[in-house]
Amino acid sequence: MRLLDQLDDTAETSESMFRRVLAKEDARRIRALCDLAAQTPSIADYLKNGLYIGWTRDDMRTWELKDQLTPLMEAIYAFQRSEGVDKDAIEGRIDDAWAAFNQHRMKILVHCL
Question: How many whole angstroms separate alpha carbon 27 and alpha carbon 107?
Fold first, then answer.
């Protein structure tokens, strides 16, 4: 998955310690979503459980990210559950959803400072 490759690359090569740590945490979360998608036949259960994998400290503020997380999680679910489908198109959805999620999350983080 392109997103995981990008996160792993950032975690190893970024000059910013903050970006390296965040990328490593994000890669762990995306891998957890991939594993959950592969193991969960119901998308409703996947969407419910995928919100509680440590997106925020003790997942106490994850509700603030839900609107942006849902499209990302749906795209990852489609990617993991699809066979013989054009995964490039799904990866495009993942990339777009990640960009929207990350932008929203950074805005929240800045307001917390």
Answer: 20
